[in-house]
Automatic annotation (TrEMBL):
This is VOC family protein. Residues 2-130 form the VOC domain. PROSITE patterns: VOC (PS51819). InterPro entries: Glyas_Bleomycin-R_OHBP_Dase, Glyas_Fos-R_dOase_dom, VOC_core. It comes from Flavobacterium psychroterrae. It holds the Pfam family Glyoxalase. It comes from the Bacteria.
Amino acid sequence: MKVKVIGIPVLDQEKALQFYTNKLGFIKKHDIPLGENNRWLTVVSKDEPDGVEVLLEPSPNHFEPSKTYQSALFEAGIPYTQFNVDNLQDEFNRLINLGVEFTMQPTAMGNVKIAILNDTCGNKIQLIEMLS
């Protein structure tokens, strides 16, 4: 068994695609129309194009419990998921220069350093650097 796709609920798939590709640096993998302006829309790391796909799901717009859960996590400041980076300070600086809003600056916590950003689509995302 292995992970191939993880889903992130987004309020606007096109806005999410622009953020995840133009700001975070992912590349579009699949974009398949599903009807009613919904898409099977995935992005992947440009460093691992055959790696785990991130599905930008429109579920909050179609399933109220999903919207409630997403909103509650966001309001509590809890990240929906996390992405690993090699150098958090460099990535933080790059993203700040692109106008990305962070709710937590890079902070060391034991053997990791983390920061939390707003993906503009209803989620907080944690970036993490493993420290040696």
